[in-house]
Structure formats: C-alpha cells, structure tokens
Amino acid sequence: MDGQSTPTLELRDVSKSFGAVVALRDAQLTMYPGSIHALVGENGAGKSTLVKIMAGLYARDTGTFQMEGKPVEFRTTAEAKAAGVAVIYQEPTLFPDLSVTENVFMGRQPVGRFGRIDRAAMRAEVVELMTRLGVAIDPDRPAEGLSIADQQIIEIAKAISLDAKALIMDEPTAALSGVEVERLFAVARSLRDEGRALLFISHRFDEVFALCDTVTVMRDGSYVSTTPIADTDVASIVRMMVGRDVTELFPKVAAEIGRPLLEVTGLTQPGVFQDISFQVHSGEIVALAGLVGAGRSEVARAIFGVDPYQTGTVTIDGKALPAGKPSASMKQGLALVPEDRRKQGLVIDATVASNITDAIRGTLTRGGLITTGAENAAARVWARQLEVKTASLDAVVGTLSGGNQQKVVLAKWLAANPKVLIIDEPTRGIDVGTKSEVHRRMSELAGMGLAILMISSELPEVLGMADRVLVMREGHLTAAIDRASATAENVMFAATHSGEEVQ
Fold first, then answer.
1. 267 alpha carbon, distance to own chain's centre
2. Are 415 and 479 contained in the same domain?
3. CB atoms within 10 A of CB 270
4. pLDDT for 84
5. What is the distance between the alpha carbons of residues 145 and 147, in angstroms, rounded to a whole number?
6. Domain identity same for 50 and 15
7. How far apart are CA 419 and CA 448, in angstroms?
8. What local confidence, expressed as pLDDT, does residue 247 receive?
9. How do residues 8-46 score in pLDDT, each as one tens digit?
10. Do 20 and 60 belong to one domain?
11. pLDDT on residue 248
C-alpha cells in the first residue's frame, strides 16, 4: 500500500438509523489498491450495515462516500457493481441448475452473430479466470452440489470478470475447511497483487493476522481505530472491540462430575457413523472434535432424533429414547442447539419473544390460547440473562446480529430446563466478546449439573472448555482424551490418522 495513492474506496463520517435504532454513527473506512484491509468488531458493531451501504442495499443518512477520489451515490446493487464494488458473502447464492459459466455471466451474456449467446466465448473466459485464480473448477458443471468454497470462487471469478476494484469478503471462511481457507487466501493474495483493494471481515484473529495488512475496529456502530497489522496484537484489538479486557475467553470452572445423564451405545448408521458409544455425566462438558465431514453433527442429530440410525441405543438419565422422535427427546430433557441457527434453530421471520418461548409454548397457554403478555414475560427473563441485544422482544429475529441470534437459540432451550444440552459449533461466526459470554454460560450450566456435549471445529475452544475430548474420524470414534492430557497435537493426530478406535 502506497501512503500517497488514491483510496479505491473511502467512507467518512457515515451514519445510518432505522427508526429509533442508530446502526452507524460517524463510521469511516478507507481501502487502498493492492492492500487487504480487515474490518472487525463485535456482532452489532455496524459492520454489516456499512457493507450494505457499500453494496448499494442501504442509503447512508449522512457522510461522504468516494470511489477513486470521486463522490458516489449508490441507489441499487447494480450501480455498486457497475462502479466496481463486489461482495463475496459467507454463503453465496448461485442458480443451482445453471452451469458455472452461466452463473458467472448471468444477466450479461455476450452475444455473437445473429444475436445468439456466444457460449464458446463465455466458457473460454471462465477457463482463463479459473487459471488466473489457480483453481480447477469445471466450467460446464452445474452449480448444484458445489462446496461453499467453490461457490465463493465462482463469485470471485464473476467479480473479476466485471473488473471489480473493491472486493468485500464477509465472513468467507466460517464454513470452510483448513485446506479451503488456504486456497481462498491464495486467491485473495493474488487479487491484492493485481492491485485490487480487498476488505476481509472475520471474527478469526489468526486469519486476520495471517492475511491482512491493516485493521479497522468498530464498536457500537462507531469507528474506533485503523492500525497496520504489524503494529498491533490480538489483546489490543479485543480491548478496542469490546471496550474492556477480555481476560478469560475460556472461563472454565471446575464442576462436580455426577452420574451419567447421556449414554450412547453402539449407535450406527451405515455410511455415516459406526458403533458410537460414550457417556456424558452431570456437570461435565464433553467435546466432540474432528475434521469437517467426520460425522459429528450427524451423530448429534441422530441422538436428538432428527436423523435416523439403524442400530444402537440412547438414554437420558437412565430412560431409553425412541429413535427418530425429537418431541420425545425434548420431554425427557434433551436439547439441541444446531450448527445452522438460521435454518434449523430459529423461525427467522418470527419475533424474538416467539423464538425464545418456542420450546415452552405449551406451558404458557391458557384455555388453548397464548397471550403476547405471557410470551413476552417468559422471554424477557432469558433475554436478560443472556444479554440479547434487541430493540424490543417484538423485533423480528432475522434482523438481529449473528451473535444475538445464537443467544436467542440458546435462550429457547435453556427456558425448557434441559438435563442434557447438545450444542453444535457454539461460537461459530460470533465475536470475541460474545464468545466469552457463551463460554461463561456453558461453564455455569455445567456447574448447575447439566451434561453438555459440545461439537466444535475450533481447537482452542475444545481444549479450553472440555473436561473430556472425544475425537471422530470418518464416522468412527478414534480417541477419548481427558482434559489434562488433551493437546492440539494429539487431538489433530486422532482426527487425521488411522489407528485403534475407542472401544
């Protein structure tokens, strides 16, 4: 980055309100050509609102917006794209029935002689784009079935074909494996080297420090600071993000381990998982670790009754659970916080209060009816306990930040007073301050006697929160490691190497 170069994109003193809710106040961001700029902040800090202003989805209330030194005013996403702004989202939206090539050129197909679409020219350009990006994706294959990583590459190829000057990558690595992250980073660096300006939004500080040149911190809708990566560290960034020191990201408190509350014996679904057996005791947090695709989430969903299993048994506090019946699981005190909150954990168009009381609705009815007052009263208790940030309990849950949506899902299940809590990727996609709160709450719940089965792909979380670590590889349990013996090396070894399985 040349300190004298003209910024590719610059926002100054930007504000945005939605009714009485102030989303941004005096926000600012400057992106330079040939640089990767990180944007960090807690959920609700205003990052998404700022991105939507850059993308043409929202109009700012005040402030200036310039591209390459000239004022711009985007009223639509098409205007933003035409000016050279491209946004690569965590979960791209492609047309599944169309080919990779057709998705790249959707809405702007080149026309040859006689007014016909020049498919050969389209295909040739996609091949050239993929070669430039250093990836091998068949231009003729349908988009349906592509991994999230490949879908993101297609969106990047589309942006390059439009000669995008500013590329915004919004939580692009949340659903990617380690190998896929490295490929994405290689592509990002090649785009930087071409002179494009990139914005990288992430809660993963190791990725921010590995990839980015500069970092801007936001808090509560306001700009805090912009610093060269080389001149800062994680502790300083966290302090600026949350306005305080987060001294304990993993506030694990020793709890009294009691009787087995969850017992799984010989659970098998051919081709998915095989002979899974383990126990989780009262007061214990057991982590289910392993690489993406090892079968961890599938085991959790089978235990709860969402997915089938062919053989095996599941008991809660000594009582056998019928297979395939989530309602029976709930009645016996089992709760599942799923990995995909938006699709599986929430009714995204319903209110915060409705979602929090979803699992206890039957206890709130009088004469078969439920009043808004009763619903809000019950929801308010848990919204306060988990510090859900929302304008009101009547707000649509889909308008909340990712971290607050996660809190709502957790509140829903805690309201049901479970004995056993299965929580899949408890802190994926949420900020460091909220992570600390979720971890603290998990530790408190274990201290109250809950049995917690935690599925996590983040090794620091596994090592920081678990009393025992169960490791899965290719549908099998390969290791059971107690807290004192668990290290990043032996967990990863069990997740990636063949060996004797847990008996």
1. 29
2. yes
3. 10
4. 93
5. 6
6. yes
7. 10
8. 52
9. 999 999 999 988 778 899 999 999 999 999 999 876 788
10. yes
11. 66
The answer to whether residue 314 is domain-embedded is: yes
Lowest-confidence pick of 55-69, 148-162, 168-182, 330-344 = 168-182
Token match 């002689």: residue?
113
In terms of domains, do 222 and 351 share one?
Answer: no
Structure tokens at 217: 């911190």
Domain limits at 341? 260-496
Element (H, E) at 197: strand 197-201
* Spatial separation of the C-alpha atoms in residues 82 and 159, rounded to whole Å: 10
The domain that contains 230 carries what CATH number?
3.40.50.300
Burial 136-147 (b: 16+ CB within 10 A, else e): ebebeebbeebe
- Domain-embedded: residue 250: no
Side-by-side strand order, sheet with 420-424: 334-337, 420-424, 451-455, 285-290, 468-473, 476-482
Q: Which residues contact 174 (CB under 8 A, 6 or more apart)?
A: 90, 428, 429
Report how far residue 464's alpha carbon sits from residue 236's, in angstroms, rounded to the nearest whole number. Answer: 21
Q: What is the DSSP letter of 59?
A: -
| pLDDT at residue 497, as a whole number | 65
Q: What is the pLDDT of residue 171?
A: 84
Which residues have C-beta within 8 Å of that of residue 408, sequence separation ≥ 6? 346, 352, 355, 356, 383, 386, 388, 397, 400
Query: Which of 242, 277, 302 finishes a domain?
Result: 242
pLDDT-derived band of residue 175, with 50, 70 and 90 as boundaries? Answer: low
Residue 316, strand partner residues: 262, 319
What's residue 227's pLDDT?
Answer: 96
Average pLDDT over residues 481-486: 94
Q: Which pLDDT score, from 0 to 100, does residue 4 have? A: 57
Residue 485 has phi, psi (to 5 degrees) of -100, -10
**Does 408 fall in a domain?**
yes
Q: What are phi and psi of 169, to 5 degrees?
A: -110, 105
What is the SS3 assignment for 79-133? HHHHHCEEEECCCCCCCCCCEHHHHHCCCCCCECHHHCECHHHHHHHHHHHHHHH
Residue bearing tokens 């549908």: 475
Residue pair 436/252 in contact (Cβ under 8 Å)? The answer is: no
Last-in-domain residue among 242, 272, 300: 242
Per-residue confidence at 231, pLDDT binned at 50, 70, 90? very high
Calculate the dihedral angle through the C-alpha atoms of 46, 47, 52, 58, rounding to the nearest 10 degrees: 10
Q: Specify the amino acid at residue 95.
A: F
Percent helix, strand and coil across the chain, each rounded to 5?
35, 25, 40
Specify whether 369 is located in the same domain as 428.
yes
Which residue in this structure is represented by tokens 């008996």? 503
Within a domain: residue 297? yes
CB-CB contact of 339 with 353 (8 Å): no
Alpha carbon 189 to its chain centroid, in Å, reads 23
Residues 171 and 75 occupy one common structural domain: yes
Q: How many structural domains are present in the chain?
A: 2
